Amino acid sequence: MGTVYVTQEDAYIGKVDESLNIKADKKTVLDVPLIKVDGLVIMGRANISPAAISELISRKIPITYLNVNGKYLASIEPDMGKNIFVRNAQWKAAGESAQAVHLTQGFVRGKLKNYRQSLLLAQRRYDLDLNSGITQLSNAIASLEQAKSINSLRGYEGAGSAAYFGCFNQLIRVDNFSFSTRNRRPPTDTVNSLLSLGYSLLRHDIQGALNMVGFDPYLGYLHTERYGRPSLALDLMEEFRPLIVDAVVLAAINRRMLAPKDFITEPVSGAVSLTKEGLHLFLRLYQEKKLSKFKHPVMQKQYTYQESFEIQGRFLAKYLLGEIDKYPPLVMK
Amino acid sequence: MKNTEYIQIAALNQYAYCSHRCWRMFCAGEFTDNQYTIEGTALHDRVHTTGDIDKEDTWQIRAIYLKSEKYKLIGKSDLIEVVSGEYYPIEYKRGRKGEWDNDELQVCAQALCLEEMTGQNINIGYIYYAHSHQRQLVEINQELRDSAIATIAAVTNLLETGTMPPPSYSKRCKGCSLYSQCLPKAFDKLRNYQEAN
Ligand code: SF4
Prior knowledge:
The complex is a heterodimer of chains A (333) and B (197). Chain A has 333 residues and is of the alpha/beta class.
């Protein structure tokens, strides 16, 4: 089951026996055994009973609040961070330490390699010419090794991402959607609104995994401290962005599961978001992707993407604690 | 840091099973229930509920605290029996006799506490295996004492320094409730790993 998303504005989330029970208009819309739930995301104004909150917390299930457009508001995290050793190692590596540089390089390399891989696949699949983007990505990846400072790594990350998003419109194979450049806060076109929503969901999941491992999600290396920003979650997210979110967004568009009629545009601000039906569909696709299995290249075993969030978090802890001498980002062939 | 804390008898058992597991549980504060630990806890709940009862000439005392100042040990006993004035500890275990002898160590540590608390010499203890309803005699001999004392020293050192013993993959990992946190194969897997280019 994984994460339960509640999108109904005035839904009531309660606990009935060993189940999470969600009612709307006095009728049960979902009744799911707690044992199958590992996250609860409340989008909008749903109510939750104190009994349900305390049951979820005692089962170490995080509750996240997003606004209707998927913007992160707050979360109730169970206390799992007793692992002071992990936090201590995380803080010790802060700044420009060799470990921070190595990790940042790993996050960026993972992301750029996965970007390049999706361009290579699309080039073959749709018979496109994406060579210039692919070359720019290869150059950025090659430069990462020489980079000695986190700032220069950020530079290559920016160049690589620009090259990838420069090709993104060609990955869209239908004519009622198009992409010109990445914009956010608020996203003002359909594709950007999907990407932003997807990244927000992913961030919630990665933050949960990091919390489970014992990290402080607010101290990162590539993303540095800024008030209220879960920097480490943003760091670890990098390698997963193309694998999960971009893949779901492109599938939803190219398989014509979403159409322009599934979006609404706010007056004046121009902010674009999904309709209720569109949102349900997107959440379902995201969830399916998370629960799909793949062979983890390091562990050589089948895992779901959801499980792989925690595995990468465990690698991160092992690297910082000196148990392994390099951090292997999740790089797909 | 000077050790002013007591160490839990249960930590000895865990240490003898796997030092990395002991570190995760008692230093890093990780504990996950799996089927085994849940059954174990349920079994203990039952054992711990009854208080003390007299059974003919055997005096049974359940669920009392054990403590040793000399070894800085603290723990709880499942059952202590007193037969003709002689005390001995009995430790309850789910399942059958294990492949590992860490349970004997735990009984020995209980005996060390009891000796200090009663002033008597304790020469025997038992492990009760719930699965087979069998009691197994544990001889508290010098060899076992030495190994318990050595383990106490090792655990004391572990708790004082917090230094993580690296995980190492072995047969014991199979039934370990911390497997998915520990990923004991990661080190070797990573050594053979070549990232896609
Ligand atoms: S999985 Fe193996 S190495 Fe890791 S804690 Fe358990 S027994 Fe020890």
